[in-house]
Amino acid sequence: MSQVTLTKEAAYEVKDMLEKNDMAGGYLRFKVQGGGCTGLTYGMSAEDKKNDNDLEFEYYGVKLIIDQHDIPVVDGTVIGYKQSLLGGGFTIDNPLASLSCGCGASFRTNNKKGTPSQC
């Protein structure tokens, strides 16, 4: 089965964000869009409902939804969260990414090139 994983650290951060925004029962949407120097970019948003074509995964009480059309370019991806002295942020480890830009904001896979845009 296709899968995208949310680490424990990422799940707790998402859960905290959802609760602070009065969306404790909400979803984290993980998506892929065209753009960036190499053609594809990741996006994440809080949602209050899922769509018919969404796949749902649950990790540590957080419901993660992904459009089934995005799965071919993110299957096996691990979404993490790292904290440092300069702050924290989400990390995305996608084993299907064959190329990423220097700033790490966009990627492409062997099967999907996307639509590159100016940086």
TrEMBL record:
Transmembrane segments: none
Residue span, Core domain: 3-104
Superkingdom of the organism of origin: Bacteria
GO biological process: iron-sulfur cluster assembly
Native species: Phocicoccus schoeneichii
Coiled-coil residue spans: none
Name of the protein in its database record: Iron-sulfur cluster insertion protein ErpA
A Pfam family per the record: Fe-S_biosyn
Gene Ontology MF, one: iron ion binding
SUPFAM superfamilies: HesB-like domain
InterPro entries in UniProt: ATAP (IPR016092), ATAP_core_dom (IPR000361), HesB-like_dom_sf (IPR035903)
